[in-house]
């Protein structure tokens, strides 16, 4: 089971999907593309202390975290 974690002002929302399920994987891909288009940054943990930024949907990533764009003031 793969997880997409979306961070926002209220905390986080987790979306679990089975990457072998075509419908669930397509929905996760749409979510990924929508969030990236909205300015979120996606990252996947490779191993403890090592993360990689994602620019394309990876259905095999166990856990993808989406961070909102930082706004300074």
Number of strands: 5
Order of helices and strands: EEHEEE
Low-confidence stretches: none
Given the C-alpha coordinates, what overall shape results? globular
What fraction strand?
35-45%
The total count of helices amounts to 1
Main beta sheet, described? 5 strands, mixed
User: Which structural category do the helix and sheet elements fall into?
Assistant: alpha+beta
Can you tell me about this structure?
There is one protein chain. By secondary structure, the chain is an alpha+beta fold. The chain has one domain (2-67). Helices cover 22% and strands 42% of the residues. The protein contains one helix and five strands, in the order ββαβββ. The protein has a five-stranded mixed β-sheet with strand order 2-1-5-3-4, covered by helices on one side. Strand 1 (2-8) and strand 2 form a beta hairpin. The mean pLDDT is 93.
Condensed summary:
The chain has one helix at 22-37, and strands at residues 2-8, 11-17, 41-47, 50-54, 63-67. The chain has 73 residues and is α+β, with helices and mostly antiparallel strands.
Index terms:
73 residues; 42% strand; single chain; globular; 1 helix; 5 strands; alpha+beta
Secondary-structure blueprint:
Blueprint: E1 2-8, E2 11-17, H1 22-37, E3 41-47, E4 50-54, E5 63-67
Parallel strand pairs: 1-5
Antiparallel strand pairs: 1-2, 3-4, 3-5
């Amino acid at each position: 089971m793969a997880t997409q974690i979306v961070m926002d002002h209220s905390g986080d929302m987790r979306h679990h999907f089975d990457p072998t399920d075509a419908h669930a994987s397509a929905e996760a891909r749409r979510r990924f593309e929508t969030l990236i288009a909205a300015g979120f940054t996606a990252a996947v943990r490779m191993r403890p202390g090592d993360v990689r930024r994602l620019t394309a949907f990876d259905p095999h990533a166990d856990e993808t975290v989406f961070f909102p764009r930082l706004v300074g003031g």
